[in-house]
């Protein structure tokens, strides 16, 4: 009770900011659930459509997260200036953020198009006698194409979203994201199964629904920005002379280590999904379902982390250093409590959750086994995610790069491959590699954050 009393105000500040992000993430989670579950049910006993979504989304996710990491630099830079009341500087940062995200969107799209042939190459490379991996790759291509064309509208949406979060407005993006997710699920029903006169498109239909909903989200948030009287002051500072290379450099300086961390961490998960293809379409489908379920925990951790980034950046900007450690501790309390709940849910409900995505008994059985391992890494995943979010708020991001290199390239992937192939543990060995990598990242990022807080106190 004494702890609750001591940290009550910090819990409240975190949850007030985090709750809208949590709801938006929950909506995003619902969309991911819907994509995987609807495509899985479209395939029925056939696991190939589910494996196709896994393959297409795996490659796309790597590109998307690289772009997202760069965009996340906007929030701490805006938050620091907003905390000291420098509205003109906030306006200039946001003006340059639009150009910054536009450039990222174009470059990311070009890269994604250039990497498109890799899906077919991967399908041929991973093929083995008795497997249908080539068919999986063929089905994944049109789904991937739809996701690629959604990158630019998504980046423009993120430019406004991250700016709004930097000034403490998390509710607007929440409502727009939820509305976009509802639209996505409705369009999934029409496009995947061919309802109301539409042709049944299967996995490609899920991609088309995502494209349309992301365009809608971009239009909605841009309209809100231009119609909101509260944001008029920031618009008044927009001018041609406001575009400066120094702002773009500052955004990139903070963004590229974040992007590097997100890509390398996600690459570990993505490579795990891709490697699962070598064990057949059942293994690939089970890994896709397992990670879709695991995202339920991760998305809420991201929301808590986003709130901590905003609050820590405000504390740092206002130089209220005595508030920093209590905020860090409160963030860990909430994150670990959530990880505990999710670990229990994943263990107890592992089979019922798997049946939401597919009717294939082999996929369900393997998914249930993998969920026991995924429950274990909930704690280390939460600690490393929250530690990195708070380091981001302090703009102490360069140290993250060597940490993730060590955790994922030197430990996670090699150990996972040794267990999976050398010791014949299959998918189970790949997930154990993730547990080791995440645990290493959790330890090192937590130690770095502790050192940084001690330094500024």
Characterise the protein shown here.
Helix content is 84%, strand content 0%. It has 457 residues and is mostly helical. Helix 2 (48-71) packs antiparallel against helix 4 (87-114), helix 6 packs parallel to helix 9 (203-227) and helix 13 (324-348) runs antiparallel to helix 15 (361-376). The mean pLDDT is 84.
Helix content: over 70%
Number of helices: 18
Taken from the alpha-carbon principal axes, the silhouette is globular
Number of DSSP E strands = 0
Structural class: mainly alpha
Share of β-strand residues: under 5%
Q: State mean pLDDT (0 to 100 scale).
A: 84
The ordered string of helix (H) and strand (E) elements is: HHHHHHHHHHHHHHHHHH
Low-confidence stretches: none
Largest sheet: none
Kindly report how far apart the N and C termini lie.
26 Å
